[in-house]
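> forwarded from #structure-qc
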């Protein structure tokens, strides 16, 4: 037999579950800096016309540096396709290991190598992305933070044109 007390308790429990579900999903989630940078990089891939793009089978993004949180966030792009092509994220541990990629990201802890890397990839059709690099002469795209700690990026058009 149906007990009205249980019905009232069940209704309260159901109401609590619905409230918690709505609260959790209505409360805005924080977006991390790494997610923002990953979003920018994804959009760079989408909106740049790459040389011989029709021959590209996989878009390659490389990271030179030890920002493991950023690397892991970038790896989440590997399940996406850009322009109908898969994305692969790789890391390089030394400058000597660097090979062709479409985007090469130098993490903030390795910015002091930017000139050497810039000279290495010059003319290779690689977009060099740096993180708060203080050597604007050698950057193509550089992540910066404004006074409100919001991530932005600056572009050195001449270096991008020279890269092909």
């Amino acid at each position: 037999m149906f007990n009205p007390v249980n019905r009232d308790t069940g209704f309260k429990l159901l109401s609590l579950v619905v409230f918690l579900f709505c609260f959790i999903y209505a409360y805005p989630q924080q977006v991390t800096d790494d997610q923002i940078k990953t979003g920018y990089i994804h959009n760079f891939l989408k909106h740049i016309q790459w040389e011989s793009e029709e021959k590209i089978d996989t878009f390659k993004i490389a990271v030179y540096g030890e920002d493991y949180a950023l690397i892991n966030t970038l790896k989440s792009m590997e399940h996406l396709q850009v322009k109908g092509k898969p994305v692969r994220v790789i890391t390089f541990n030394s400058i000597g290991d660097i090979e062709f990629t479409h985007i090469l990201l130098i993490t903030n802890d390795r910015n002091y190598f930017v000139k050497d890397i810039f000279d290495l990839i010059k003319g290779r059709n690689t977009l060099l992305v740096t993180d708060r690099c203080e050597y604007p002469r050698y950057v193509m795209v550089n992540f910066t933070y404004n006074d409100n700690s919001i991530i932005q990026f600056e572009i050195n058009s001449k270096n991008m044109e020279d890269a092909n």
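QC bot note: Helices lie at 4-26, 33-47, 68-75, 114-121, 157-162. Strands lie at 59-64, 81-82, 85-92, 103-106, 127-131, 141-145, 151-155.
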